[in-house]
Amino acid sequence: MLELPEATRERIHELQELSDKAEDDDGARQELRRRLAQEEPGVVARCSDSARFYRHMLAQSMAAGDPLVEDATVERSERMALELAGENPTPLEVLLSERVASLWVLVELQEALLAAWYYKADAASPAFVLQMSRLQESCNRRYLGAIKTLAQVQKLQGPSRVQVNIGGNQVNVSR
Question: What pLDDT is attached to residue 167?
């Protein structure tokens, strides 16, 4: 579900083009709604995936104008979500792995901002830095909580690969 087939990417691209037209055209807006109602759930889910959108925004803020840092952060978060979800993820594993990846970007941004405030200690009051430290702690708790929840869900799913010995031959079976 995390990696999209080419046909799905094309349908999302078509919907995005229709969405661009719908900003100024009521007819295009009605057509967009009709197409979304007929679309398969995976396409609708991807089109409404705000986590990916705000990961881009957070990465842009963290990068401070450096395209390499911005794009590498987004790519790393995408890879992280894929890796954490594992092979053949359940819908819940997909949601949780996306959440972990998004919170990772938020934690990284908060750490970068806090480091910048410490670096320019004369620019921020101690009360402001203390408040930002509390915000960082909150983000980190949410991040660790999402990791823990994903690990619990994956543990409940059982091992992702089971080895079975049939007639002297070892067979690996994925869930």
Answer: 65
The answer to whether the CB of 129 falls within 8 A of the CB of 118 is yes
Residue 30's Cβ-side half-sphere holds a number of Cα atoms within 13 Å equal to 3
- Could you tell me the pLDDT band of residue 1, with boundaries at 50, 70 and 90? very low
CB 161 within 8 A of CB 172: yes
pLDDT of residue 37: 93
Report the alpha-carbon distance of residue 110 to residue 38 in Å, rounded. 40
Report the distance separating Cα 21 and Cα 18, nearest Å: 5
Q: Kindly list the distances between the CA atom of residue 102 and the CA atoms of 19, 27, 57, 160, in Å, as whole numbers in the listed order.
A: 25, 35, 11, 24
CB contact at 8 A, 132 and 112: no
Total structural domains in the chain? Answer: 2
The CA-based dihedral angle spanning residues 132, 133, 136, 138, taken in that order and rounded to the nearest 10 degrees = -100
- Distance, in Å, from the CA atom of 65 to the CA atom of 36, rounded to the nearest integer, reads 35
pTM of the model: 0.72
Q: Which domain holds residue 94?
A: 50-161
- The verdict on 71 and 96 lying in the same domain is yes
CA 133, 139, 141 angle in degrees (round to 5)? 105
Confidence of residue 157 (pLDDT cuts 50, 70, 90): confident
